[in-house]
């Protein structure tokens, strides 16, 4: 089974054999990529791991970029003729959505399904992506809603684009909070400021619904940030892929 999570900046996808993740990849998301090009990307990387498209029995997709979803529908529904499932209205998730369902992104629902199934209990899920999302899920699998903040990468770009003299910087772990020059000061402000942002939102969400809630982290930027976030209890880099696998199981029974 091929599972695909299309984000605004990156697309992650993986191949499962039964419930085991055999391999997974991360590529740039491009709304200009055609169905043929997406097919080439998937086929090339899968074949490196000894998996052919003919072996696929199902594809499960979570997508927040509509033009990419159109291309993937054309690929799997036409060119490859492989049965596919898109996470959206009408799909079984096992969750009770207490927020406005039409306003909740597919990726947030998939993360909530995975976290509630794998870890149980009251949870706060933090996904460090292009945007950083915070989701609250109760032990009864009620999806309460959450918060959305600009991702740390967007924060760096905003400093450069909205100021006259500040340079463009990459995200780096600073040695100190008191920068001795402009670049050091920017690294300190962005990095430590972002950890503070995440901690504050998590603490407030806990106070609103469950002080004892476990915090589950995921997302591309989480690979850099999670180890410095002492409020994160578990970091799972493939949480979304696991959620897509679980959603397939829920909709196959």
TrEMBL record:
One of its GO terms (cellular component) is cytoplasm. Substrate binds at residues 105-108, 182. The keyword Signal does not apply. It holds the Pfam family Pan_kinase. GO terms for molecular function: ATP binding; metal ion binding; pantothenate kinase activity. A monovalent cation. Ammonium or potassium. Its cofactor is NH4(+); K(+). K(+) binds at residue 127. It is found in: Cytoplasm. Keywords: ATP-binding, Coenzyme A biosynthesis, Cytoplasm, Kinase, Metal-binding, Nucleotide-binding, Potassium, Transferase. Pathway: Cofactor biosynthesis; coenzyme A biosynthesis; CoA from (R)-pantothenate: step 1/5. ATP binds at residues 5-12, 130. Homodimer. PANTHER family: TYPE III PANTOTHENATE KINASE (PTHR34265). Belongs to the type III pantothenate kinase family. This is Type III pantothenate kinase. It comes from Candidatus Caldatribacterium saccharofermentans. The lineage of its organism: Bacteria, Pseudomonadati, Atribacterota, Atribacteria, Atribacterales. The gene is coaX.
